[in-house]
Design brief:
The complex is a heterodimer of chains A (218) and B (350). Chain A has 218 residues and is mainly α. Chain A is built from eight helices and no strands. Chain B has two domains: 110 residues, Immunoglobulins (Immunoglobulin-like), CATH 2.60.40.10; 189 residues, no CATH class. The longest helix of chain B is centred in the C-terminal third of the chain and has 39 residues. Chain B is built from six helices and nine strands. Chain B is of the alpha+beta class. Classes of the chains: A mainly alpha (218), B alpha+beta (350).
Chain lengths: 218, 350
């Protein structure tokens, strides 16, 4: 793995993203609209619903955002990358970029939710640590699945079919951690769940790094 | 005929499990004891309803109420009503050898046809005078020298009753499913290494049969749950995790069906199945172990073994796993041959 190469790809992704402002704006508009719809239909959201809604909104907004990461590029571009980069560098850069993107998206959703519905979280440390780890896991799954669906048919339908069942275990752990951080539930062994989230992240990361080079060659 | 013996073997073992598992009777047991409360110093008769018992056919029926390993009282009078119903009269001593005000007593029944059977904590005795501790009345019960009965029978468990036979099908299906899925992943890894299409066909076939076993496992489990937990689906962790696992593998089937380009499809589905299997490990093995569950082996319940899987059950349970795995392999082989033929026809037409 070459750190400078990873950095280069990361910066390239970022500049492409900012060049296509409509795509970026579209995702944030999507997030805001969904939060607003949810707010208008519930009117008064209690912490229980808040924990569930925030992750459902995050999941679907994130899915929309990541679809582009491999789908937006043309076949020729891939051929060009192939001569230029090591696959590990490419996937690590894409993953880091997606992770950062999802984190920003999450903060924006949190912000909009804060304005409309309030912020019931009591244990900030646990909430942000759990969310960070969970988003890392989600970005691993989304990145890997976007590679598969890009190579398959380039359709975003495939992406959601493949990605949603795979992120379910992560989302279940996240829901539990969020519920505890909102103090709806008291669980002294919540650190076990956090450790499990770390474990799941590492397992998925390892599997992705092992499988991607073979996939990419096609 | 080459490689034919294990197919016959699988079918025969399955037949053995099917016949043995359904024909062998359940051991006698006690379904209910009424009333379930007693007071010290009184003479009380309890109506005992048994299951698979032979009170009338037995010549010598004995019964005890047991407090602990050395203290017990024997029944004063036994009145047989039907084969499965009898009235036991005990005179409960006024003094207990322990201090607590309420004591659980286990009912032990022994006869020469059924052997000995127990209902733990059948009766709760209230001690009127718990200050006097005396074990005198409890010592001369003559408990012991139970009748020995020949022949094999499955253990009787309250709630489970006859459904204990589902052990051979429901649990064995899960074991066999894991064996098949592991073979599927092994071939996916081999495909990623060699790029040989035969591994892709093998991997897909084993995964498909594994998924089928998974669905069967869910169905048998659901029916079992209806009879023991009184609902087809509960929010038990293991059920939810399995549902997720099945969803992941169903997405695998969608992926395989989506692409018409064989080489690309092979590569994509192989890497997805490895990724899915990796994601499956925490799902099925780790998370359920850490949270409460109604299943044995989770949340403080005893795992396989202990009282739930005794030697008579083992006699059919382990062969059942082997039989299911062999039959699954057979089915996968049929699928593999079918896929190979399809490939051949495809090449000929081009």
């Amino acid at each position: 793995m070459n750190i400078t190469k990873v950095k280069d790809i990361f910066i390239k992704e970022l500049s492409i993203e900012f060049r296509q402002k409509f795509a970026l704006g579209g995702i944030f508009l999507f997030a805001t609209t969904v939060v607003f719809i949810v707010y208008k239909s519930f009117n008064n959201i209690n912490p229980r619903e808040w924990t569930i809604l925030i992750w459902i909104i995050m999941l679907f907004a994130g899915l929309n955002a990541i679809v582009k990461s491999f789908l937006q590029e043309k076949k020729e571009t891939y051929l060009y990358y192939y001569t230029l980069f090591d696959p590990i560098d490419l996937i690590v850069a894409k993953l880091l970029y997606n992770f950062m993107f999802l984190c920003v998206l999450f903060l924006i959703i949190l912000g909009v939710m804060f304005i409309f519905t309030g912020f019931p979280v009591k244990d900030y440390g646990l909430f942000f640590m759990g969310s960070g780890l969970g988003i890392f896991g989600i970005s691993i799954v989304f990145t890997f699945v976007s590679v598969i669906s890009a190579a398959d048919s380039g359709s975003s339908t495939m992406m959601s079919i493949l990605a949603l069942p795979l992120v379910l275990p992560i989302v279940l752990l996240l829901l539990k951690i969020t519920t505890v951080s909102v103090r709806l539930l008291v669980d002294t062994a919540i650190m076990d769940d956090v450790m499990m989230l770390i474990g799941v992240d590492f397992i998925l990361l390892g599997a992705m790094l092992l499988l991607f080079p073979g996939l990419w060659r096609s | 005929m080459n490689g034919f013996w294990w197919k016959i073997g699988g079918a025969l073992i399955f037949l053995y499990v099917l016949i043995g598992g359904l024909v062998i009777p359940i051991k006698p047991g006690i379904t209910s004891v009424t009333p379930s409360n007693a007071k010290s110093g009184e003479e009380m008769s309890f109506n005992v309803v048994g299951y698979n018992t032979h009170f009338l056919a037995a010549t010598k029926v004995r019964a005890w109420l047991k407090l602990d390993s050395i203290h017990a009282i024997s029944a004063k009078e036994i009145q047989k009503i039907t084969e499965n119903e009898a009235k036991f009269t005990f005179s409960i001593p006024a003094n207990f050898p322990v201090k607590e005000a309420v004591q659980p007593l286990s009912l032990i029944v022994d006869n020469d046809v059924d052997g000995v059977f127990v209902q733990p904590n059948a009766i709760f005795a209230t001690v009127a005078d718990s200050s006097t501790i005396s074990g005198e009345a409890w010592k001369s019960s003559g408990i012991g020298q139970f009748s020995v009965v020949k022949g094999i029978k499955f253990p009787y468990r309250n709630i489970l009753n006859e459904t204990i036979r589902n052990t051979f099908f429901h649990i064995a299906l899960w074991f066999a499913m894991f064996i098949l899925l592991i073979v599927g992943v092994y071939h996916a890894v081999r495909f990623m290494n060699t790029g040989d299409m035969i591994h892709d066909i093998k991997s897909a076939s084993f995964n498909k049969i594994g998924i089928m076993y998974g669905v069967f496992g869910l169905i048998t489990g659901s029916v079992w749950a209806k009879f023991t937990w009184d609902t087809f689906w509960t929010s038990d962790v293991k059920l939810n995790m399995t549902a997720i696992a099945m969803l992941i593998y169903l997405a695998y089937l969608v992926l395989r069906g989506s692409s018409s380009d064989h080489d690309r499809r092979a590569k994509l589905s192989a890497s997805y199945s490895i990724f899915a299997f990796v994601a499956l490990i925490p799902l099925v093995f780790i998370i359920p172990r850490m949270t409460d569950s109604l299943h044995p082996g989770n949340g403080g319940n005893p795992a396989l073994g202990g009282e739930d899987l005794d030697n008579t059950l083992r006699l059919f349970f382990y062969p059942s796993i082997i039989a299911m795995a062999l039959l699954g392999t057979w089915m996968s082989q049929l699928l593999i041959r079918y896929e190979k033929l399809k490939e051949k026809v495809l090449l000929k037409n081009q």
